[in-house]
Amino acid sequence: MKKLYALFLGLIVMQTYVAAQAPQGGNRPAGAPNNQQGQQRPGGGQMPQIGHIYGKLVDAQTRQPVEYASVALLRQKDSSVVTGMLSKGNGDFSLEQLPFGPFLIRINFMGYKTIFKKVTVTPQAMDQDLGNIRLEPNAKALSEVEVTGQRSAFQMNIDKKVFNVDRNLTSVGGTAADVLKSVPSVNVDIDGNVKVRNSSPNIFVDGKPSTLTIDQIPADAIESVELITNPSAKYDAEGMSGIINIVLKKNKKAGFNGMIQGGIGTGDKYNAGGNIAVRQGKWNVSANYNYNANRNWGNGTTDRTNFATGASDLNYIKQESDSRNGGNFQFGRIGVDYFMDNRNTISLSQNIVNGTFKNYEELGSIYSDSKMDMTRRNTRYTNSQFGFRNYSTTLGFKHLFAEPNKELTADASINLNSNDRSGGFSTQQQSLAGAPVGDPYMQSNRGDGNTDFYSFQADYVDPMGKTGKFETGIKGTIRKFGSTYEVGEGPNVNVPIDSLSNDYKYNEQIYAVYANYSNAIKNFGYQLGLRAEQYIYSGEIPSEGKTFKPTKAVPGLFPSVYLSYKLQKEQELQLNYSRRVNRPNFFQLVPYRDFSDPLNHREGNPNLKPEYTNSLEFSYMKTWKKHNFLGSLYYRNTNNLISTLNEPIAPGSDTLLTTFINANKSFSYGAELTMKNQIIQGWDITTNVNLYQQELQVRNEKENYTNRGFSWLAKINSETKLPWNLTFQLTANYQAPTITIPTGGGGGGRGGGGMGMMIPTSAQGRIRGMSSVDIALRKDFLKSKTLTATLGLSDVFNTREYGMEQESMYFSQDMVRKRESRILRLNLSYRFGKFDTQLFKRRNNRSGSEGMQMEGQGGF
User: Fold this and answer.
1) HEC profile for 572-616?
2) What Gene Ontology terms describe what this protein does at the molecular function level (predicted)?
3) C-alpha dihedral over 310, 313, 318, 319, to 10 degrees?
């Protein structure tokens, strides 16, 4: 552990020193290509010709379209002609199949001033709309426009961080859980629960709510992960620590291209898949498919001391767990885009996901009296299976106005999810020596559920003046959930017992409207926003005839304020504030006793209130030529925190009842530092450190305590380009010991069962520190580098282990859990396609022939 501390400290000091010595000025991202021609890949090979630049020519005075004007694309280095055309009758021009690189667009027509505009085609700016270009007689040329950028592994903006998954080698062949482990500021525990600044974020897929867990999304289907720690009024108000948006791949490259890939990992882990896309004329069709099979093991121990139990044989309990779980799932997506013209696009996408997870566990329990003498023991054997299916359909429309950055978007989506679970357990009582005694106690369970999400959204963006912008939009989300759960026990294990079985339904509706206005006065910028959300909830237990009347709370208002000030030498300060909410879900509200776990019963509380969070953040950003620094101070205060309360169901019982309460308050504050450096050419390092203080106050008739503590999280991502087309990547994480902040919400965890050990959540306690190091090596083959092999090893030192110490007025407990984490994976991928201008080229006979004639006559 000391070596890991030294590694973090050494790299942070080195990065800070290198950045301090860096020359001032310039903001070209580290790793941007130095090849001014943009024609050759590093190391040779032709760059793909897939860029697209378009716009419209109009008369500056009459605003009428200008046809037959000459539009030429020239190389910046030597002004040689790349391509060109004459504007159409409506003034439109469209230059397609362009290579990457910096260029000049030259526009001239008799009687008008010649215009030159700088553009740069990059993987992030393949489609560029130059808007309406006004041709003026005897006027100065329009201001030059330059678009630059190179896709790096991690992009820092002051309001959002973007992690590009295609550059993350350590998650190849894994799932979204493996991806998020590498994202700065994000912490993922061994159960797949996600935390940002030690609180649960709202997790979206393609900007929308989803019923998928992070273990049901393959890493190879993800394009990027967006992290917004303090969202503006434009975003949903749900989520204590912001939003994580998982963006799926959508291939829109011109021509025909695709990829196939497959991999294998130690311990029966396999993955395979591929994607394909065809773009021709006004149509773009893409599809991808991924298959993932995973097996892993887990074990753990729990030592618990019961206080004032009323029975001497229940003073001490020791549990040991050994589990095996796994399964497989398939992920498919097909998308269609129809480009009606340069500024109107209709998109339709369909996602299909299905799979099955299985879990087997042996849980041994030993009970001792106050003298630590064993009094009884048993072993519980659990078999369970969980299957799921998810269908998601999205229809979208996008209109780009002639004015740059003015647009209207609208979409509607349907997300249908169904699941079924079955299994059961048998508990065998044993003699003190471990021999079976009597017949085992049997219990079976089976159930199914479905969740339907319906959402619609429309957003409008309108630039105002030179620096102003107005945004507004509406959104509606409807969620319908239904579930049945049957439990049988004893000799007639397959006959449902009404007192143990349950069924329920509920309906949630959220309707929202927002408005944002932003502007700048010299170096000072501001954005003011307000979001209003109306929440409607109703539920029922059909088998008992119980109905929970719809609740219509007063619409919640969620303001946001962003203030920024640009300093000299690429520096910026920003101060922002937002108000957020976390509403109790049905399981926390329904007053029904869940007996499915014999050691941990659960019951909802219909009197729960939403918890509200006020979030304040102050940030400083500095950009050098090859270095970036982002530092943030933040404060978060939550009132009516939804927490859990655990107590024995009766004196002398080892079974706990978990109920939900509103704690008085919780607050945290801290500092987060993120540094991205290019140490030398070909070696990039991103370091993220989060230092924070937390406090939780619980005051009620049953418990009264305060839990507070300081902790920190550090994460380092290093990428090194080596000779022979090799790339080496290292990711190191360390989470220091931290206090437990019990919440009733989830964090996007795993979809397949878990260890049935006693895990009460409300006790005052501390989570032990945890660390891990992942490494990966990638090798590109063939002259075109289209064949790639990636070898990765996760948790190199096998240190990823979860430990927790808890104490309440009823018990004290020490728990340690471990899942398989050191995994060696080998993946192969092959990219194919045709990008030349002769394939699937949109043809226009008149403009094509005229363009060739003018080029031959030197008209450009």
Assistant:
1) EEEEEEEEEEECCCHHHHCCCEECCCCCEEEECCCCCCCEEEEEE
2) siderophore uptake transmembrane transporter activity
3) -90
N-terminal to C-terminal alpha carbon distance within the chain: 66
Q: Which CATH superfamily is domain 255-362+371-747+758-834 in?
A: TonB-dependent receptor, beta-barrel domain (2.40.170.20)
Contact 123, 98 (CB under 8 A): no
Q: What is the pLDDT of residue 251?
A: 66
Q: Give φ, ψ of 3 to 5 degrees.
A: -65, -35
**Cα–Cα distances in angstroms (integers) from residue 460 to residues 159, 406, 457, 471, 557, in the given order:** 20, 8, 10, 6, 20
In this structure, which CATH number among 1.50.10.20, 3.40.50.1860, 3.40.630.30, 2.60.40.10 belongs to the domain 49-149? 2.60.40.10
pLDDT at 836: 35
The rounded distance, in Å, linking the Cα atoms of 730 and 777 is 9
Distance CA 501, CA 858 (A): 83
DSSP-based three-state secondary structure for 91: coil
pLDDT of residue 28: 35
Eight-class DSSP state of 436: B
pTM for this model (two decimals):
0.75
3-state secondary structure of 36: coil
Q: Which residues of the chain are under the pLDDT cut of 50?
A: 3, 5, 7, 11-14, 16-47, 139-150, 310-312, 744-755, 760-762, 835-860
Q: Per residue in 139-155, is it b (16+ CB within 10 Å) or e — as a string? A: eeebeeeeeeebbbbbb
Dist CA 445 CA 442 (whole Å): 10
What are the domain boundaries of the chain? 49-149, 255-362+371-747+758-834
Asked if 49-149 and 255-362+371-747+758-834 have one fold, the answer is: no
| Whether 825 contacts 265, CB under 8 Å | yes
Give the pLDDT score at 728: 94
CB count, 10 Å around CB of 387? 19
Q: What is the strand order of the sheet 243-248 is part of?
A: 154-156, 161-164, 222-228, 243-248, 202-205
Helix (H, G, I), strand (E, B) or coil at 7: helix
CA angle 305, 308, 314 (to 5 degrees): 50
- Write the pLDDT tens digit of every residue in 515-531: 999 998 988 989 999 99
In contact, 566 and 529? CB cutoff 8 Å: no
Give every CB contact of residue 717 below 8 A, 6+ residues apart in sequence.
153, 154, 182, 184, 685, 686, 687, 729, 730, 731
Provide the pLDDT for residue 83: 86
The structure tokens listed for 244 are: 């994580």
What three-state secondary structure class fits 113?
coil
Asked whether 806 and 765 are in contact (CB, 8 A), the reply is: yes
